[in-house]
Amino acid sequence: MKKIFSTALVLMLMFTLLAACGKKDAETSATKEDKKITVGVVQTNANESDWRTANTKSFNEAFATAGFELKMVFGEGDHAKQISQAQQLIQEEVDYLVVLGLQSAGWEDVAKAAKTAGIPFIMADRKLDLSENLYTAMVCSDFLAEGNKAVDWLKTQKLDAYKIVVLGGDTGSSAQLGRSKAIEDGAKANKWDIVFNQNMKGWDETLAKQAVADLIATGTKFTVIYAENDNMARGACTAMDAAGITYGKNGTVKVIAFDANKWGLQNVLSGKFSLDVECNPLHGPRIVKLINSLKAGEKVEQNAYVDETTFDINSITQAIIDARKY
Ligand code: GYE
Fold first, then answer.
1. Where does the UniProt annotation locate this protein (predicted)?
2. CA dihedral in degrees (86, 91, 94, 100; nearest 10)?
3. Ligand 1: distance of its center to the CA of 258 in Å?
4. Which pLDDT band, with edges at 50, 70 and 90, does 308 fall under?
5. Which of 205, 306, 308 minimizes the C-alpha distance to 263?
6. How far apart are CA 231 and CA 209, in angstroms?
7. Whose Cα sits closest to atom 8 in ligand 1?
8. 175-188, pLDDT tens digit by residue?
9. C-alpha dihedral, 192 to 194 to 200 to 206, nearest 10°
10. Suppose 245 and one of 38, 95, 177, 240 were both cysteines; which one would form an S-S bond, judging by CB atoms 3.0 to 4.6 Å apart?
11. If you measure from the C-alpha of residue 45 to the centroid of ligand 1, how many angstroms do you get, rounded to a whole number?
12. Where do the structural domains in the chain lie, given as residue ranges?
């Protein structure tokens, strides 16, 4: 009798244990399934440009809709700060790390640490100097291609004289490197003169305005403003207004800008800007799609460049501007 009782007790204990484990596994897998995806995003600066504002908004909105937990940090112009922020996010074991680098170089250690931690490293906006085994995927703009589109357009203008002012973006960012390479190579190939070539810290509109005002004060003549974003192009226009220099559709100076914010396109339509090269900041939905594909174990394109176009006085309309999302 005693034997039957102890066997029954052991069996009951075993069933209880099995049920508990099963429940734990079920809870664990349910927890795992329900666990929000946490994405660390290392952004450049909070208020660098209108492009950046639209870019940050795109991440916030798309990640909220997707139900991702977003951990966004801002380097505020400091590359070393971005590096330590990225390392911190790896320590916090985010599920994915997205980097928008102030500088192209110097990301190897972070990428290796992410790889060791099993955290997919995704580049957004600006391609970084990393070998393909060190990043999972990228959603970036081809800045050299953007610049070459501007050079091709400039060639069609058949100006009497090409005296070009280059207002570059943040030195060492892939956006600045690509766009500057395009105009420098284009000027060499077409025997154009670059009369001024300076990068503005933080893509700053005021710095651009001051640089052009100082240049005008030296008496330097120019026929093209090649500004590597809309904000700096607007700064140059403010300086030319103050000096009574005409520009745009009926002026003596062609103004080339990049980003194609809505207000920049409005300046094309009004004849102030001659060309605006699109650089699309709406990376939020693209990164959400990429992460969902990675989560589902699907094969993803490692190097995805964003499709972008150009707008000039002959192609822009108010309807096009009204339909744009940024
Ligand atoms: O052109 C500029 C922003 O990385 C493409 O950074 C981006 C650039 C953009 O501040 O306005």
1. Cell envelope
2. 0
3. 8
4. very high
5. 205
6. 10
7. 175
8. 999 999 999 999 99
9. -90
10. 240
11. 10
12. 36-140+281-295, 143-279+312-322
Say which amino acid occupies 316.
I
pTM for the predicted model, two decimal places: 0.89
In angstroms, rounded to a whole number, what is the distance separating the alpha carbons of residues 140 and 100? 9
Q: What percent of the chain has pLDDT over 70?
A: 90
Mutate to test the pocket of ligand 1, among 50, 51, 256 (most ligand atoms within 8 A of CB): 51
Q: Where are the alpha helices (DSSP H) in the chain?
A: 2-34, 50-66, 79-91, 108-116, 143-156, 174-190, 205-217, 230-243, 262-269, 283-295, 318-323
| Mean pLDDT, the chain, whole residue set | 92
| The token pair that represents 303 in the structure block | 């190097």
Structural fold of domain 36-140+281-295: Rossmann fold (3.40.50)
The rounded Å distance from CA 79 to ligand 1 centre is 15
CATH fold, domain 143-279+312-322, is: Rossmann fold (3.40.50)
Fold agreement (36-140+281-295, 143-279+312-322): yes
